[in-house]
Design brief:
The protein is mainly alpha-helical. It has one domain: Iron/manganese superoxide dismutase, C-terminal domain (minor pseudopilin epsh fold). Helices cover 44% and strands 11% of the residues. It has eight helices and three strands, in the order αααααβββααα. The chain has a three-stranded antiparallel β-sheet. The longest helix has 26 residues. The mean pLDDT is 94. Bound molecules: fe (ii) ion.
Length: 219
Amino acid sequence: MYFQLPTLPFDENALAPFMSRETVRTHYLGHHKAYIDNLNSLLGETGGDYGSIERIIQNFDGPIYNNAAQAWNHTFFWHGLTDRTRSRIPQDNGDLDQAVERSFGGWSSMQEKFQDCASGVFGSGYVWLTVDGRGELEFAATQNAANPLRFERIRPLWCCDLWEHAYYLDYKNQRVRFVEGIWNYVNWEFVESCLLLDGVPNMTKFMIASRPFVPAKGP
Ligand SMILES: [Fe+2]
């Protein structure tokens, strides 16, 4: 089984001005695609069929893990964002609203917790919104490609990519402005759909290749 770059769930301009078209294209067609191409090349060398990216993340370390995790993380990152007009905080007493109230004491406190967690990430990594088996929400920071599918007892609901490539073209060294801005572009419908799942979100379904992967030829 090989994987392909998933279709973006929005237009390349949809996140502007928070995230420019140039950043989306560089991040998506440059970085995200490279992780998937690398993963296909590495899997090709093993000759195995591992069924899903979620299973690969659970069972490999080293380069295969890093590239599979980054393929998954970026697909999840894109799905967690939407254009500003569709990013509506669901203050509707629904499942997510109730979980936010119970876990953080409200949406403003939740945003503060997210910003605090993001400010603590040194270097490259992610902030994840997670839920545990009791339905408690929490933010967790990870380094580099680390993916919470490897963590026990929590499931990811959303993530914020804090690698420099996510913000540097638009904000240079002002990462805090990126962290503040992203809150207005969260796809809360997607977050709530993840909360209602029994298991981890299936990102493999967006990346199943319809044709075999053909590694690029060298010069
Ligand atoms: Fe990224």
